[in-house]
Amino acid sequence: MLCILKQQCKLSTGHSSGRKFIIANARVENCAIIFCNDGFCGMCGYTRAEIMQKPCTCDFLYGPQTKKRAIAQIAQALLGSEDRKVEIIFYKKDAPQQSARPIESSLFSSDSIR
């Protein structure tokens, strides 16, 4: 089973800035990330090599304004293998305080994307 986390950033104009996504293997510990696209790398400031094998919960992007409720919703969706949309605040690698922005995250199990 694979988990796919797609993120779409909303700009202040209301338009989306494009799709960023990761793909994770739900059969290994921590649902390790096995792929991320260039858009995801650009959004978070990490290289692909730094992101590979990290948990798909993206806890490396959490910061002071990341809500515990959103974190719990992502974890619950992963445990239950259910699709879910969550708005969460992620932080870029090198400038966490200046780069906090809400991200709409959608989690999909491999069963729902066939």
Describe the structure.
By secondary structure, the protein is an alpha+beta fold. The chain has one domain (2-112): Beta-Lactamase, CATH 3.30.450. It is 21% helix and 34% strand. It contains 3 helices and 5 strands; from the N terminus they run βββαααββ. Strands 3-2-1-5-4 form a 5-stranded antiparallel beta sheet. It is globular and about 30 Å long. Mean pLDDT is 75; it is low at 10-16. This is Potassium voltage-gated channel subfamily H member 7. Residues 29-97 form the PAS domain. GO terms for molecular function: inward rectifier potassium channel activity. It holds the Pfam family PAS_9.
Topology:
Elements: E1 2-10, E2 16-25, E3 33-36, H1 38-44, H2 48-51, H3 68-80, E4 84-90, E5 101-109
Antiparallel strand pairs: 1-2, 1-5, 2-3, 4-5
Protein name: Potassium voltage-gated channel subfamily H member 7
GO molecular function: inward rectifier potassium channel activity
InterPro entries: KCNH_animal-type, PAS, PAS-like_dom_sf
What's the CATH topology name? Beta-Lactamase
Q: Helix content range of the residues, please?
A: 10-25%
Kindly, what is the distance between the CA atoms of the first and last residues, rounded to a whole number of angstroms?
Answer: 11 Å
The count of β-strands is: 5
Please state the average pLDDT score: 75
Radius of gyration: 13 Å
> So what's the CATH class?
Alpha Beta
Q: So how many helices?
A: 3
